[in-house]
């Protein structure tokens, strides 16, 4: 996009020069400027018409654009340099104008072409050395001007080297900064490589969205903790919420039972939302299933419970107690050829039997954890619980 904008702007600038030449009758530079306008216009049109370009393709376009402009400036520098040396006796005006054009082109390359400094060096040096090559060509092909050229050269060597050196430094610094910014933006985007499609649940400080992975087009359920909602509570509560969210993601990801919802990814979005991505499940949770279709036969209920117990057995083997087993956290759907396939959800208040040293308790003393209607008696009286409370 930046290269396309540069090409479009330069094409308009050269087109204005071309129109000026036509109106004034100055035809000497018309063919060269027409070629430059054509190349820049076609390149800009290609870049804006097609959004996806591979890096090698962009490199080819980049080299074509800057090589065309460099050759044009070199041709004009040669013609104007010879004329100025012949008529003005020293060529200071032509030489300074030539240097200024090349300096601007070098800086424009650094600013408008996203690149790494290493890849930018050959192009930047190629543009920078061109005016020096033009000066040597004038010296070699015009013996009659050598005396004037040699007399003027010593006083300009330092200024020329300084100006060109500074232009190279500015271009490479701009390339370095832009490369870092692009890398940071890419990493931020990669951290949330999902497009949100539909909010499928919310409550408290969290939301669950149906989303799709940008690269794989894979549907996922994205659970978010919104930073703007955390900011409205005290620091201790906010810290506990984030720790619980992180623990839920890690606990779920540690499971290996096929009947536990699978976690794919976790991180922080560019705008500060904490998230984790899990498999998107179609179907119903058991609470919705019963509310919509009525009670299920005993045989089907047993089929559901055996699968849920498989997930719980895996959790208990990992030293985890779910503490919120209820129909709303048990999901039934179709998985491949298997129907009535159970997935256990929501390890948000999971208890770790042997927490790591220094782990902050996530349950506030004096509060009841879980859903009262589905709570084991030992949880209701705030006693210590283990996996038996889940069963």
Notable characteristics:
12 helices, 59% helix, 391 residues, three-stranded antiparallel sheet, alpha+beta, single chain
Fold and architecture overview:
The chain has helices at residues 2-24, 30-49, 55-88, 92-112, 117-141, 146-191, 227-230, 235-254, 286-293, 298-317, 377-380, 387-390, and strands at residues 194-203, 206-213, 219-225, 263-268, 274-279, 284-285, 320-321, 330-335, 338-344, 351-352. Strands 1-2-3-5-4 form a 5-stranded antiparallel sheet. It is of the alpha+beta class and 391 residues long. Residues 356-367 have low confidence and may be disordered. The longest helix is centred in the middle third of the chain and has 46 residues, at 146-191.
Overview in brief:
It is built from 12 helices and 10 strands. The protein has helices at residues 2-24, 30-49, 55-88, 92-112, 117-141, 146-191, 227-230, 235-254, 286-293, 298-317, 377-380, 387-390, and strands at residues 194-203, 206-213, 219-225, 263-268, 274-279, 284-285, 320-321, 330-335, 338-344, 351-352. The chain has a 5-stranded antiparallel beta sheet. The chain has a 3-stranded antiparallel beta sheet with strand order 6-8-9.
């Amino acid at each position: 996009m930046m290269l396309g904008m540069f090409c479009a702007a330069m094409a308009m600038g050269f087109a204005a020069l071309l129109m000026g030449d036509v109106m004034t009758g100055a035809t000497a530079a018309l063919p060269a400027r027409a070629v430059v306008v054509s190349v820049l216009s076609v390149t800009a049109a290609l870049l804006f018409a097609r959004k996806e370009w591979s890096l090698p393709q962009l490199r080819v376009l980049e080299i074509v654009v800057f090589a065309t402009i460099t050759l044009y400036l070199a041709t004009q520098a040669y013609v104007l340099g010879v004329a100025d040396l012949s008529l003005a006796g020293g060529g200071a005006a032509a030489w300074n104008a030539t240097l200024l054009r090349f300096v601007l082109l070098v800086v424009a390359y650094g600013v408008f072409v996203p690149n790494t400094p290493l890849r930018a060096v050959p192009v930047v040096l190629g543009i920078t050395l061109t005016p020096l090559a033009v000066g040597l060509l004038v010296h070699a092909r015009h013996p009659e001007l050598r005396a004037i050229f040699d007399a003027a050269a010593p006083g300009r060597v330092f200024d020329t080297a300084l100006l060109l050196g500074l232009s190279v430094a500015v271009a490479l610094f701009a390339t370095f900064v832009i490369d870092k910014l692009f890398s940071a933006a890419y990493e931020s985007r990669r951290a949330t490589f999902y497009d949100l499609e539909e909010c499928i649940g919310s409550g408290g400080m969290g939301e669950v969205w149906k989303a799709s992975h940008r690269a794989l087009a894979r549907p996922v359920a994205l659970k978010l903790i919104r930073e703007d909602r955390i900011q409205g509570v005290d620091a201790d509560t906010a810290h506990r919420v984030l720790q619980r969210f992180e623990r839920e993601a890690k606990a779920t990801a540690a499971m290996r039972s096929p009947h536990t919802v699978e976690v794919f990814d976790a991180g922080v979005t560019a705008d500060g939302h904490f998230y984790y991505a899990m498999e998107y499940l179609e179907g119903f949770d058991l609470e919705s299933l019963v509310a919509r279709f009525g009670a299920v036969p005993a045989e089907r209920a047993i089929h559901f419970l055996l699968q849920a117990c498989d997930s719980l057995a895996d959790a208990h083997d990992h030293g985890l107690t779910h503490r919120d087993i209820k129909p709303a956290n048990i999901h039934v759907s179709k998985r491949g050829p298997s129907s009535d396939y159970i997935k256990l959800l929501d390890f948000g208040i999971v208890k770790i039997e042997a927490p790591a040293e220094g782990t902050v308790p996530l349950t506030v003393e004096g509060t009841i954890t879980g859903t009262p209607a589905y709570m084991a008696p030992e949880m209701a009286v705030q006693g210590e619980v283990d996996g038996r409370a889940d069963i």
